[in-house]
Write a structure and sequence with these properties.
By secondary structure, the protein is mainly alpha-helical. The protein is built from ten helices and no strands. Helix 1 (2-27) runs parallel beside helix 8 (179-194) and helix 2 (43-68) runs antiparallel to helix 4 (81-112). It starts with a helix and ends in a 14-residue tail after the last helix.
């Protein structure tokens, strides 16, 4: 079971990610979007969307640093294990709480705005559930090991993650990892496998500029301000 979960499942998730992205780009370019419904409601969206996106960006940055920056590198910069633990604990928890708050606001918006709720699919609900589970389980795992220097995942989980890219997975490192961290890792791999088949696929389009782009504003045409629509030419009326 250890070999299957920590030696095979990561590659299954990676293959699903790459193959799904290739398939989606080839056959569903017009569906490569968040399917925004701002036209139905914008006040909550203007709050929830930035909160979620900034929170999840900080979460991803924290995971990349924690998993792929060896402890020896931070020690060489004068950052001791206790200092790193405190930064990871408070910074990671704050980022996770920000992302969770954003998701809850988005879910609340979908549930309380009838047109948005009618446009919500089973795929959306599943995605929100798995994403919330990954975030909450990560925070619970971190907060359950707060004494001293906490659980040093850079001695087990991080080397295992790096070994996957060398195609020599060190599955034995995950055998004695606390259960909460194991559950968090499994949910994370499931989420990675799901990304291409959900609205999360838009993260591969332009994730950084997305945070700073202006919102698309939808509004009705007001004849009093814009004047009457000009008469169409004969060839423009063909086909309606």
């Amino acid at each position: 079971m250890t070999t299957v979960v920590w030696g095979a499942l990561p590659y299954v998730a990676f293959v699903s990610l790459v193959a799904g992205l290739a398939w989606r780009y080839r056959y569903d370019k017009f569906g490569w979007t968040t399917r925004s419904w701002q036209v139905y409601e914008s006040r909550l969206l203007n709050i929830a969307s930035p909160v979620f996106h900034y929170g999840i960006l900080f979460v991803l940055a924290g995971h990349l640093i924690g998993l792929f920056v060896p402890a020896s590198w931070t020690l060489s910069l004068g950052i001791g294990e206790h200092t790193y633990h405190l930064f990871s604990l408070y910074g990671g928890t704050a980022a996770g709480a920000l992302a969770v708050a954003g998701i809850l606001l988005l879910v609340h918006r979908r549930r309380t705005r009838a047109p948005v709720f009618r446009a919500t699919t089973a795929n959306d609900k599943t995605m929100y559930a798995v994403l919330l589970a990954a975030l909450i389980m990560g925070m619970v795992a971190k907060l359950s090991h707060t004494s001293g220097n906490g659980y040093d995942y850079r001695e087990t989980i991080a080397p295992w993650a790096r070994s996957l890219f060398l195609l020599r997975p060190r599955t034995e490192l995950m055998a004695d990892v606390p259960v909460l961290f194991q559950i968090h890792a499994v949910i994370g791999m499931v989420l990675i496998a799901m990304v291409p088949y959900t609205r999360l696929v838009h993260m591969f389009s332009a994730p950084v500029p997305y945070l700073f782009r202006p919102y698309i504003v939808y509004r009705r045409r007001d004849p009093g301000q814009l004047g009457p629509r000009p008469e169409r030419r004969g060839w423009e009326r063909i086909g309606g």
